[in-house]
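=== RUN LOG ===
request id: a7f3
mode: sequence -> structure
chains: 1
length: 248
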Amino acid sequence: MDGAPPPAGLSAYVAVSQLLGLTLLATTGAWLGRYRGGVAWHGHLQFNVHPLCMVLGMVFLQALLVYRVFRQEAKRSTKALHALLHGLALLIALVGIVAVFESHRSKGIPNMYSLHSWCGMAAFVLYLLQWLLGCGFFLLPRASFSLRSRYKPQHVFFGIALFALSITTCLLGITEMLLFNISDSYSRFVPEGVLANTLGVLLVAFGLVVGYVLTRDDWKRPPLAEELALSMDFKTLTEGESPGGSSQ
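=== RESULT ===
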């Protein structure tokens, strides 16, 4: 019903997810600032732009909870916000990719040889494809009602799968970065290793909480009354069916 409060427990889980997200961003910044010298676009600190941008763009800013949070707003506005946040995430991730390629080029380090880089590039390319298809099917009124209905389960599944892949890639990147920089002392529980491991645990916790919210069917955004009417009109226009379902 329009104006109904959110389901019990949803607000608490959303709040926990955002608290975890902000904490993992702060932890990333603390790690890079305290132990890796900080962040800069030019010079030897350019590489550090990469982990910061990837955690921010490919994990925290993935707008997976938009439809759970904005339950009473117009669907069109929620779609636009969903697409806008994903587009922003892609831009930030692109900055991170450019930073690591530029850093490697200046230092004479080869690119795209590690499992982390393969998974990361796959995640970014598939994320871009997911965004383009989502805009084409749902934001722009071009696809028919039946086509959108058939594609929606794939869009939802791959959205969650890419979120999981992004977190996995971050975990691979953290481990790779630690082994490159503190391999001799990592096994002795040095502070940098403990902090980076904590970041990994926060990433997993963030993913689990967000995943739980997304998989609760009773927490899905219910369609508003006017949206049901518009959906019927759209189906009638695109499929050539009358509101009663008979073909014209």
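=== NOTES ===
The two ends are 32 Å apart (CA to CA).
The mean pLDDT is 88.
=== END ===
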